Amino acid sequence: MNTPRTKFYRDKINGKIMGVCAGIADYTGVDVLWVRLGAVALTLMGIGIIPLLYLGLGMFTSRKPAHLYYNDRQEQRFWQGVRQSPARTAREVRAQFRELDRRLADIELHYVSSNARLSDEIERLR
Predict the structure, then answer these.
(1) In 10 A of CB 58, how many CB atoms?
(2) Stretch 95-120: mean pLDDT
(3) How confident is the model at residue 5 (pLDDT cuts 50, 70, 90)?
(4) What is the SS3 assignment for the chain?
(5) Residues in Cβ contact with 93 at an 8 Å cutoff, skipping those fewer than 6 apart
(6) How far is CA 77 from the centre of its chain?
(7) Choice between 60 and 116, residue whose per-residue pLDDT is larger
(8) How many CB atoms lie within 10 A of CB 67?
(9) pLDDT (0 to 100) of residue 1
(10) pLDDT value for 8
(11) In angstroms, rounded to a whole number, what is the distance separating the alpha carbons of residues 85 and 6?
């Protein structure tokens, strides 16, 4: 189960033909309808490489493993953000941890300041 979540996969469960457009939508975070409409529009405009590219991706891209399908929309958005900008995602996670640390410090200050015995115990542990 050590499959990378940041890799492009075909999405056969949400896909129509080979799952390429659904895979692109999952990878980028764009709605699958827009990806499909874009592929059809480019094909109709006479860009002949689109069907070849679609077939190539359909044949040579691996299928999305079952354990990578998301039960939670928030988790899906998180991993799409990781794929789009890993540095920004890391900054956001660090900011969330800093906020959590600040909130825990506030809770500790509240309980320690109102409980002298607990405050003394914490000081002895340091």
Answers:
(1) 17
(2) 80
(3) low
(4) CCCCCCCCCECCCCCCCCCHHHHHHHHHCCCHHHHHHHHHHHHHCCCCHHHHHHHHHHHHCCECCHHHCCCCHHHHHHHHHHHHCHHHHHHHHHHHHHHHHHHHHHHHHHHHHHCHHHHHHHHHHC
(5) none
(6) 5
(7) 60
(8) 7
(9) 54
(10) 79
(11) 11
Measured at the CA of 53, the angle between CA 49 and CA 56, to 5 degrees, comes to 140
CA angle 24, 30, 32 (to 5 degrees): 65
Q: Between 116 and 58, whose confidence is greater? A: 58
Q: How many CA atoms lie within 13 A of 56 on its CB side?
A: 5
Tokens of 80: 């799409």
pTM: 0.55
